Amino acid sequence: MATKIDANAVRGVADNILKIMAEHRATFEALKRHWPNAGKFPLAVWLERVADDRRNAVGAHAEHLELAFFGMGAKLKTLADKFQNTDGENATAIKNLLSGLEKEVSGMISTSDQKTEEKQRNYSGKGTPSDGDGYNDNLSQEVR
């Protein structure tokens, strides 16, 4: 069975995949600047920590999606370039080209997560872990 590729169509799909997060990146960036100010009593501090954690998780999820879409788009463009003028029994070659995509994207996500852990900070400005506002607190300390 012969495999034939419409290279321009594949490039179009790659471009569309790459646009998905580009169109929404500003929304996720804007989310980083917002945090609640619930007060300086224990329940308020706890609530701020939870909200901060969830906001950071949404941002990290968006970064993971962006890395996955970037990996897919890049591979599809490579596939289109490599097989543009090729016809015949290409299924194995195409499978080999795409086989490492999942591992490659997983590696990019792991690297991104490590960088995030190294530089994690909240957006309240100052590094004052004992000011009771719930931001950049030492999470191993009891909330009082």
Automatic annotation (TrEMBL):
Task: Give the start-end ranges of region Disordered.
Answer: 105-144
Q: What is this protein called?
A: Uncharacterized protein
Organism listed in the record: Amycolatopsis orientalis
